[in-house]
Amino acid sequence: MVFDGDEGRLLARGEVTGDSVLRMTFVSATDSQATRISLLQPVVLTTLLPLRLAFGGALKPGRTVNARVFDPLALAERDVSVTIAAESTLIVPDSAGFDSTAMAWTPVHFDTVRAFRIEERSQGLTTNAWIDAQGRIVRVAGPVGLTMERSEWEIAFQNFRHRDVSRVERASADPGRGAIIPRTVLAAGVGAPYPAPRRVPGRPLGCGPRGPGPHGRPPRACWGHADSAPGNGCRPGGVLPPSRGDSALAPWLEAQPLIQNADPRIRTQAHDILGGELDPARAAERLTHWVATHVRKQATAGLPNAVRVLGQLRGDCNDVTVLYVALARAAGLPARPVAGLLDVGGRLYYHAWPEVYLGRWVAVDPLLDQFPADAAHLRLIVGGLARHAQLIRFLGRMKVEGL
Q1: What CATH number is attached to the domain comprising 390?
Q2: How far is residue 342 from each of residues 23, 247, 334, 347, 378, measured CA to CA in Å?
Q3: Which of 56, 144, 282, 339 is 20 to 30 Å from 206 by CA-CA measure?
């Protein structure tokens, strides 16, 4: 798969080794990365689902098909429920010609295509698509009104290639207060406030000599100290492991394809940043300031990857978020990426930042060097990159009012 965007080209390539391992490779203009993913069953890509329905004899009105598809964005499988509706006749451009007056390609002839409407439901989102008997997509209507239709190549590509981007920029250059801007603060070049760091109120939580550990345990020295050997209740380089009552925190300590906290480079960097710090809150604060001062703020192309960001020390809000989460997890601190809106000057921009568990979930912002993050952060989504894509259904319908 090749993606061409304003920030450059991204190439994603997957190869199944044997029948149980998927190797994914991502290549951009500046770097490449690869990861291996264990498979429990054969891969079904979302783009191939219509073909599977057509050639599997499932295109029968009233029939519902449940399937598991592999989402390249999430690097994971997800459940999909598809309901087949009645067949319809759609009109699509058959050929195109160049209109020298409008300076654009326009349809010349049209054709009719018979297509089945399918309703696809997954992770709370519903998409309607029309596919022909051969499984080819004719029309797709997304959950927030975004529609894609089969068209001639010149109309679909050439008109887009020569679009007037300056007009779009001018149209959104001066939105009113409370408007939701479909760009990040970094991409929009907006100066965000950088307030002085504040301490998280309350007693220290976790292990360390400054206070009791979680659940009333006696303090233990962690963070890579001599007495943090396995068997004394601590993990090397980390805090006390969660108790059975904290099983909900376990997913926020695990390594993921783009958050490689088990990588030796991430673990070593986390150990060096903490420098023997025993208090989890102070450790989380050190990680925030280190990422803020060492990672250059720059829009990047490609998927956010903690190891890549650590190697290049540059990135946007998504990049610094995955790096912080990886460093925190490597240190034994439960951490998770979140996304939402950031209020800057009365306007709301897309933004991503981490949350770290310090007896409660605390928002931090390593891009803006805020520990904790201020009230201008409006969290909408908790989880990885695939969850962030769900913001589409909110941004298209949401209205925000300050009280």
Answers
A1: 3.10.620.30
A2: 36, 31, 23, 8, 6
A3: 339
Is-contact 11 32, C-beta < 8 A?
Answer: no
Q: Using alpha carbons, select from 332, 333, 307 the residue that is nearest to residue 322.
A: 307
Give yes or no for a contact between 330 and 290, defined as CB atoms under 8 angstroms apart.
Answer: no
Residue 295 and residue 230: Cα distance in Å, rounded?
33
104-122 and 125-131 strand pairing: antiparallel
Q: Is the peptide bond before 193 cis (omega within 30 degrees of 0)?
A: no
Which residues does 356 contact at the CB level (< 8 Å), separation at least 6? 284, 328, 333, 334, 335, 362, 364
- Length of the chain measured in residues: 403
* Cβ burial, residue 310 (10 Å; 0-12/13-18/19+): buried
| H or E stretch at 279 | none
> Quick one: 65 and 18 in the same domain?
no
Place of tokens 């990857």: 305
**Pick the residue with more confidence: 81 or 18?**
81
Domain that holds residue 105: 44-162
Put simply, whether the predicted model's pTM sits higher than 0.85 gets the answer no
Tens of pLDDT, residues 228-263: 333 333 343 444 344 344 678 888 998 887 888 999
Is 344 in a helix, a strand, or coil? strand
Rounded Cα distance between 121 and 390, Å, is 13
Distance (Å, rounded) from C-alpha 323 to C-alpha 305?
A: 7
Domain boundary at 162, 197, 227, which?
Answer: 162
Angle at 90 between CA 86 and CA 94, to 5 degrees: 150
Name the domain count of the chain: 3
Residue 326 — very low, low, confident or very high, per pLDDT cuts 50/70/90? very high
CA separation for the pair 29, 49 (Å, rounded): 31
Residue type at 354 in one-letter notation: P
State whether residue 91 is helix, strand or coil: strand
Residue 223 Rama label (left phi>0; alpha psi -120 to 50; beta):
left
- Cβ contact 125:390 at 8 Å: yes
